[in-house]
Amino acid sequence: MRLVSLFVRVVLVMLACGCGGGGGPGNTSSSDGAGGSGGSTGSGPQNPEPSPPTRGGTMTFTNVGAPGWWPRRIDREAGDPACTYKDGNDTWGGHCCMKEQHTTSETLAPFDEEMTLIMKALRLKQLAVYQPGEDPSSWSLVSSWDAQSGHGKNLVVTNGQMTSADFTGDLTKKDCVNYFMQETPFACGDGKDYYCPNDPGINHLGWKGSKLIVFRASMTFDDAGVEKCDGGGQGHPGPWVAFVASELIRDGGRKWNGLCNCYSKTGTVGDGCGEINVFEVVMDNNPYSNREFMSTGVRSFQAGHVGGNVCGEGCDRDAFADDVEVVDACTKKAYTTGPEIAVGGDSDGCPVWRRPVGDRYFMILLDEKQRQIQVAVMHPDNVPAAAAAMLPSLPGGLSRTTIDALLSMRLPE
User: Fold this and answer.
1) Among 115, 198, 319, 370, which is most exposed with the fewest C-beta within 10 angstroms?
2) Are strands 115-120 and 240-245 parallel, antiparallel or unpaired?
3) Are 213 and 129 in contact (CB under 8 A)?
């Protein structure tokens, strides 16, 4: 059974039983005791899409961060001795000067640098970004958006040449890449030590240091309804959520200047400035593709490509129980506890996600203190106790106790 037909069946069941779909209006209390200053995201999601509850899932990446380096593009003339890594051409024949950018950090590096959120092919309902302030015991809501207001707080979205704090949240009509950043412009300088493209839509701050991104969204839609970004025919309908080095999208090609960006120093391995494919449905018309599963992969100079497993032609979503979110692509079995993946070490199998039917809360938490990246999928009608201080209210602040609880989740439990 394909995902669309399954969704129709789920909706009919939910309508027949009169089941509620998801959270209702958000709690407007400011925090769980953390003293956040950002208010809350406001009302609950617009047009919730119900589905039977699941047990949730996590993928926990440990041992994240190491000293090292990546190639950084800088704006220098050909022959300048500062071009220590490359002095040649970029993808389109222009000059490319790059140097080695070194870090001594061991806590999340390079993911402690500025990062930008990318999304395509999903319906976004709510989005919240939390970060610690001067007091590490509390994390504040620093950026947010919800579909009812349609307006971002300290959040802008760039789609093509349009940048705005206002958008509908429906990213399923065209296969455009959408970039989510803070409202504050990035201070470019003269470019001699950090390349800055003539692209105002990209030159906004990302989020630096520890950060938590949580959003409510649906990936259930008709593939045939997705057009190309320019409107010229059938588009690529694969949902994609990525969290990438902000430096990567400032390469002069919004990440696609492959011959002159920080993504990799060894071919296409991804051993550079840092990219996390948080949720990616691989639909490339090859044996690795399967529209009903999602991949999560971490790429950086520390260990190259970590995770990123796929469940290709041999996988069937109906081989798993309806309440399952995370499965082992190698053994074709559902996990009974959330898998761990040690960067540069061992992995609990080959974890992938079943593509959800209806709304889910999706989360990525990057924590310098514990050197972890926690990725989670949670059903709105079965929020785990560890996330109860955050969901569904998305308050103005979270305590360090809540952050530690989120990091300790190993869903399903």
Assistant:
1) 198
2) antiparallel
3) yes
Please indicate, yes or no, if residue 367 is contained in any of the structural domains. Answer: yes
Nearest CA to 7 among 297, 205, 219? 219
Which residues is 298 bridged to in the sheet?
276, 306
Name the one residue in this structure whose structure tokens are 């840092």.
274
Q: Write the CA distances from 345 to 64, 69, 200, 232, 303, integer angstroms.
A: 11, 20, 40, 45, 9
DSSP state of 161: T
Taking CA atoms, 221 is separated from 94, 139, 174, 280, 306, in Å, by 40, 34, 12, 15, 30
SS3 119: strand
In terms of Cβ atoms closer than 10 Å to its own Cβ (0-12, 13-18, 19+), residue 314 is: exposed
Q: CB-based contacts of 386: which residues, under 8 Å, 6+ apart?
A: 402, 405, 406, 408, 409
- The DSSP annotation for 237-287 comes to ---EEEEEEHHHHTTTTTT--TTSSSS-SSTTS--SS-EEEEEE---SSST
This prediction has a pTM of 0.90
In a domain, 287, yes or no: yes
Q: What residues form DSSP beta bridges with 1?
A: none
Residue 393 lies in a domain: yes
CA distance 132 to 16: 44
Query: Hunting for tokens 């307006």 — which residue is that?
Result: 151
Q: Is 55 a member of any domain?
A: yes
The number of angstroms, rounded, from the C-alpha of 280 to the middle of its chain's C-alpha atoms is 9
Residue 220 domain boundaries: 3-408
223 φ, ψ (degrees, to nearest 5): -55, -35
Structurally, how many domains does the chain consist of? 1
Tens of pLDDT along the chain (413 residues) come to 344 333 333 333 333 333 333 333 333 344 565 544 456 765 566 689 999 999 999 999 999 999 999 999 999 999 999 999 999 999 999 999 999 999 999 999 999 999 999 999 999 999 999 999 999 899 999 999 999 999 999 999 999 999 999 999 999 999 999 999 999 999 988 999 999 999 999 999 999 999 999 999 999 999 999 999 998 899 999 999 999 999 999 999 999 999 999 999 998 899 999 999 999 999 988 998 999 999 999 999 999 999 999 999 889 999 999 999 999 999 999 999 999 999 999 999 999 999 999 999 999 999 999 999 999 999 999 999 999 999 999 999 999 999 999 999 999 99
